Amino acid sequence: MKMRRPLAALACGLMAAAAAGCGTSDESGTSSPPAGCKPAHPDVPTLSKGRLNVLVYVTPPYTTKEGATYGGVEGAIVKEIAKLECLELKEQSVSAAAGLASIGAGRADLVVGGIYYTEERAQTLGLSAPMYRDGMALLSKDELGGTLADLEGKTVGVIQGYLWNEDFQKELGSDNVKLYQDSASLLTDVKNGRVDAAVLTSAEAGYRAAQDSGLTTTAFQSTPEIAASATQNDVVIALPKDKTDLIAAVDDDIRTLIENGTVADVLKDNGMDPDLAGPGS
């Protein structure tokens, strides 16, 4: 969890009942199942028979897009779900504001893009079983331990508005905790050695490290002194609330992909900690 509302920009945008400026991209990607495929759940109900219509809010590393090809953690998971159900996969980019509104209106089967589970959201949408968790991590040039004690005497950078800022200032001293307006300026100082580590979400830290071989990421270990470290957010798929059979099938597929190691593998492939696979305790 990183801000007063997790993934604040995404949460606010996706929860909005969009009016102007909400729409999908003209670019889409499609893939078909192999001949003779046997679905895990025969006759799973989808908007179009034999096709899984997916809206994708592109936000790396959760979701990525290169040309007409979608990827990232959830892009890979959705592809595996389509394979398990022998469905043609049709993906289309969606603006943040349009994603959940479109699902609520029944215009697609599901939407992905770093969506966190909340009780409020579960009242109006079908939310899948958690695919993985998003926690806290350190991003640095040099290898660091992941405990609060390992940061003593070091300078760390945080972004204004993140939940853990005041706790780090209290424990490490205000002079050792630098506040930044955005990730870009913080990363510049990490690479230039002006701060020893940045404190980010696991997803962003992993993504940044994957993009820059000079950076390394370390999971931050939970400690009572940093209250936000005790909470990890479950990342889910959103579906129409009344599509209970589809929700059940997706839930079952997600559990299969967790149990067979697929979710851990795609997390690792996208620079995230594979131990974040599955729901929180």
Automatic annotation (TrEMBL):
Organism: Nocardioides simplex
Protein name: Amino acid ABC transporter, amino acid-binding/permease protein
Domain of life (superkingdom): Bacteria
